[in-house]
């Protein structure tokens, strides 16, 4: 009987369709998944002869190829394969991003908070839809396991969910007759153009810490992701646009020390958010507070 059972199991196994091998290559997505919208800048395919992608900027709601001469290779730490090239944003391109954010601010500030809130609800839905794509990109560019990369996205998604309750969080205060014949009130207003500088270790979570809260409060935003793993931020920008975020409300530029100094020195940027080392934040804080309109 035991031998007969083994034969029957063997026959059943032969009838099953072949299972795909779960090797690293089978998990690897199409390279165009890094920044699938980059094809819109040239009108052609973003992948030619299997060459690494050129990561664009995101300015005024469009993915725009940078004219910067210096390029950083984004390297898969597991294979040492170059998966994309990041041109360093020029000063003129950075100013275009800030200008786009500045122009979008008056209209976005006056957009009803419930409208901004609905965009965050949609963004939340789209991030959940594309969480596998985001996690795969993080694994390829940054080296996390797929499970760790998914957790990276989910932790950032919690902040998007928090932003969905902004209608309540934005309520001001009113105290009648706080003193004889005196009423006091508090109104929450957006600052203007804000900026965020991201580190290497959490490519999705930290951008999601920054721009969803800022834009839902009525600010516009210029994001600088880490130059070594910009793909997650670019995917998030595409999802934000799909969710209905108006052109210019979110912009993304790439670079290293120069672009950080541009952010600190620009008078149109009213607030800077940073996650980084002690050395980085001391430099950025000291340089940014030298201007009167930042960190007051």
From TrEMBL:
<dbReference type="Pfam" id="PF00171">
    <property type="entry name" value="Aldedh"/>
</dbReference>
<dbReference type="GO" id="GO:0005739">
    <property type="term" value="C:mitochondrion"/>
</dbReference>
<feature type="compositionally biased region" description="Polar residues">
    <location>
        <begin position="1"/>
        <end position="13"/>
    </location>
</feature>
<dbReference type="GO" id="GO:0006210">
    <property type="term" value="P:thymine catabolic process"/>
</dbReference>
<dbReference type="InterPro" id="IPR015590">
    <property type="entry name" value="Aldehyde_DH_dom"/>
</dbReference>
<dbReference type="InterPro" id="IPR010061">
    <property type="entry name" value="MeMal-semiAld_DH"/>
</dbReference>
<dbReference type="InterPro" id="IPR016161">
    <property type="entry name" value="Ald_DH/histidinol_DH"/>
</dbReference>
<feature type="compositionally biased region" description="Low complexity">
    <location>
        <begin position="36"/>
        <end position="46"/>
    </location>
</feature>
<dbReference type="GO" id="GO:0004491">
    <property type="term" value="F:methylmalonate-semialdehyde dehydrogenase (acylating, NAD) activity"/>
</dbReference>
<feature type="region of interest" description="Disordered">
    <location>
        <begin position="1"/>
        <end position="52"/>
    </location>
</feature>
<dbReference type="InterPro" id="IPR016162">
    <property type="entry name" value="Ald_DH_N"/>
</dbReference>
<dbReference type="GO" id="GO:0006574">
    <property type="term" value="P:L-valine catabolic process"/>
</dbReference>
<protein>
    <recommendedName>
        <fullName>Aldehyde dehydrogenase domain-containing protein</fullName>
    </recommendedName>
</protein>
<feature type="domain" description="Aldehyde dehydrogenase">
    <location>
        <begin position="63"/>
        <end position="289"/>
    </location>
</feature>
<feature type="compositionally biased region" description="Basic and acidic residues">
    <location>
        <begin position="22"/>
        <end position="31"/>
    </location>
</feature>
